[in-house]
Amino acid sequence: MSSALDEDTRATLDAGRETAGAMLRAAQKDLQKVFIFFLIGFLGTFYALRLYVWDFLKRVTRAQMSAQISGDVSIIAQTPFDVILLQAKIGLVVGVVLALPAFLYFSRDALVERGLWPSSPVPVWQLAIIFVGMVTLFVLGVAYGYFVFFPFTFAFLAQNAIAAGFSPTYSIVKWAQFIFLLTASFGLASQLPLAMTGLSYAEIVPYETFRDKWRYAVVGVFAAGALFTPPDPFTQIMWAIPVLTLYGVSLYLAKVVTTARRGSEKMDVKATARAHWNVIAGVGVLGGVLVYAFFERGGVGYVNDGLAAIGSDYVILAPASAALLVTYVLLAGIAAILVAVGYFVYHDLDDLALVEAGVGDPSAIDLDDLDAAGVRAAPPEVFGALSEDEAMAAAGDAIDAGDKAKAQAIIDRFDEDGATEVGDGDGEVTAEAGATEAAETGGSESIGDRFSRASSTFFDEFSDGDAEESGGDSDAADGEGSDDEGDFEGYYTDLAFILDSITSRAFRIVGLFMLVLAGTFGWLYTGGIKRVYEDFLSRLPAQVTPSEVLNVVALHPMEALVFEVKFSTIIAGIVTAPVLAYYAWPALRERNIIRQRRRAVFLWTGALAAGLLGGFALGYSTIAPGVISWLVNDAVQANMVIAYRITNFFWLIFFTTAGIGILADVPILMILLNSAGVSYGSMRGRWREVTVGVLAFAALFTPADVLTMFMVTIPLMVAYGIGLGVLFVVTLGGRRDLAPPRSVDI
């Protein structure tokens, strides 16, 4: 294996092994202490889960459920070893997390020798502040999850499953994984203030980047919410809103620490405190008075009532003595004074930065702070101080922010007032070089002109490549490599052209897709899936009843919702496909991929819909009930009770109903494609690509296991083979396709 690695990789691996061995030797005498840390984490977690944590998590799960729903929810172990293995796994993770810092500390000598230990240690008090901040933020994030998010989410998920007629019978493994994954996500998300302020203070990621790219942060937060939370808007919003609030707070803190760092040499805390002593003292008194009023006017009772309302057993205790109350008041006053001092110090630094930038200094104007009108009204010196790269970067930022008018204004003003010279080899600018370039291009050229010319050249390359492909078929005979390269370029060009042709209709296509998706999901969510389930059960033999033999359960809290979303996506894709084909049809004809007129879309839609509906009717009335009855027959004879998972049961119904229609549509679609101009030889030669596409479809829209993927892929590929057989007969072995032959341009 080592021979397959390059020299640098082998050297890196050898250095890593050597470092690990040195760390083990350096920590050898202290490995017992490291193991003690691991053992404390492992055994402590193991018994904490057994004695306290499981009961606490069950209370959190049922906190917002009604008595009836709570009685229907159960948490089960699917195998005898589920609970003990789950506790052992969690204990192992916690033990390793606790032991790793101890191991690194005891092996620090080996790291110091190799220059891997920090050469300038951070003061202990700073490390303590950072650690306390991390722990505090983590606890706050987890507290939000356990006292707000989880109770409402589990109540929502259980109610959804029960309304659909299923039993929320959660597997303890899947239930615990769901909880701990979201717990980790809340804990990590709560570190945003510390992470953003630290990165901004160290100038690793400037504050301006966090400020200007907030739209990307919003998209990223909702994307993370879609990954960590159930696929419904309610829980995603409950996850995203606190994180976005943290982002806003973190953005302000990042601005504070950045301003403090950049103006640290001018910072004078004593002068600021003297200038605002009256306001600072008033804020301190107000903080103490508010805390005193909280304890004396029933604030403790209100908070305890609120905790009880969300199902929490925790209570806040009032001060047991007057001395303790005075201590709380003093601490609150001191905290309020510190906050006020920090506020005024920050604003003094901010004002100082503005003064030092120069009041009335045009070169100090930041284009990011201006709108399109401000850019047009800005003095010429602003753009005279910019280079072409800086102007283009500012215009690009404006486009990213969705302000095309501002981007155009920046380009126009730079063309008018900016530096038109071109840099020489030493970084200096010379007018002669600019004149030479202008002469070569036939006159003076602005950056806007160069941008347009570059864009047109880029697209001309695609056009030229396409022309070469269409007019130079004889060149493709030079070798197999050129054939493959030409095919790839041709596919890419055709795909880009087709996508570009439907861009103007993208709003309608996406709107229809989302409308069908939302409508189907809403129908399933509001009882449609229950009606389908009950109707299907009525078609089964009398001896198969849901109460005696056949039960459908949810082993995962999100299982019902995930199926509803996937099924809705499939329906939306089927409905949108004809509309997409209708809008893409002219481009397909222009690229000579198909030759029928656009009205053929209606023929295609009718033929495919007939095959789909016919197969669905046959499967729903006969095949699906027969298959399920055959599958449960042995259990019926043995007086056993079957509990199907929602996902497996409904995908089985889908495969034996709509799946029959899809299988019937495969040969029909192949005949239609052949009549549109796709040759029999192309479909026979591209079976590998079709197989990969079917596998990708099965991976996305079926249960996430390999067996199901192959259960979907194999029948579809068999149907594809049947379609090839039908086309072989119809086209006389590919000698006469159903479409008329392409005309040859001379």
Automatic annotation (TrEMBL):
<feature type="transmembrane region" description="Helical">
    <location>
        <begin position="685"/>
        <end position="704"/>
    </location>
</feature>
<dbReference type="Pfam" id="PF00902">
    <property type="entry name" value="TatC"/>
</dbReference>
<keyword id="KW-0813">Transport</keyword>
<keyword id="KW-1003">Cell membrane</keyword>
<feature type="transmembrane region" description="Helical">
    <location>
        <begin position="178"/>
        <end position="202"/>
    </location>
</feature>
<comment type="similarity">
    <text>Belongs to the TatC family.</text>
</comment>
<keyword id="KW-0653">Protein transport</keyword>
<feature type="transmembrane region" description="Helical">
    <location>
        <begin position="214"/>
        <end position="231"/>
    </location>
</feature>
<feature type="transmembrane region" description="Helical">
    <location>
        <begin position="237"/>
        <end position="254"/>
    </location>
</feature>
<feature type="transmembrane region" description="Helical">
    <location>
        <begin position="315"/>
        <end position="346"/>
    </location>
</feature>
<feature type="transmembrane region" description="Helical">
    <location>
        <begin position="506"/>
        <end position="525"/>
    </location>
</feature>
<feature type="transmembrane region" description="Helical">
    <location>
        <begin position="34"/>
        <end position="53"/>
    </location>
</feature>
<comment type="subunit">
    <text>Forms a complex with TatA.</text>
</comment>
<dbReference type="GO" id="GO:0008320">
    <property type="term" value="F:protein transmembrane transporter activity"/>
</dbReference>
<keyword id="KW-1133">Transmembrane helix</keyword>
<feature type="transmembrane region" description="Helical">
    <location>
        <begin position="649"/>
        <end position="673"/>
    </location>
</feature>
<feature type="transmembrane region" description="Helical">
    <location>
        <begin position="600"/>
        <end position="623"/>
    </location>
</feature>
<dbReference type="GO" id="GO:0033281">
    <property type="term" value="C:TAT protein transport complex"/>
</dbReference>
<keyword id="KW-0811">Translocation</keyword>
<feature type="transmembrane region" description="Helical">
    <location>
        <begin position="710"/>
        <end position="732"/>
    </location>
</feature>
<feature type="transmembrane region" description="Helical">
    <location>
        <begin position="567"/>
        <end position="588"/>
    </location>
</feature>
<keyword id="KW-0812">Transmembrane</keyword>
<protein>
    <recommendedName>
        <fullName>Sec-independent protein translocase protein TatC</fullName>
    </recommendedName>
</protein>
<dbReference type="InterPro" id="IPR002033">
    <property type="entry name" value="TatC"/>
</dbReference>
<feature type="region of interest" description="Disordered">
    <location>
        <begin position="462"/>
        <end position="484"/>
    </location>
</feature>
<feature type="transmembrane region" description="Helical">
    <location>
        <begin position="127"/>
        <end position="158"/>
    </location>
</feature>
<dbReference type="GO" id="GO:0043953">
    <property type="term" value="P:protein transport by the Tat complex"/>
</dbReference>
<comment type="function">
    <text>Part of the twin-arginine translocation (Tat) system that transports large folded proteins containing a characteristic twin-arginine motif in their signal peptide across membranes.</text>
</comment>
<feature type="transmembrane region" description="Helical">
    <location>
        <begin position="84"/>
        <end position="106"/>
    </location>
</feature>
<feature type="transmembrane region" description="Helical">
    <location>
        <begin position="275"/>
        <end position="295"/>
    </location>
</feature>
<keyword id="KW-0472">Membrane</keyword>
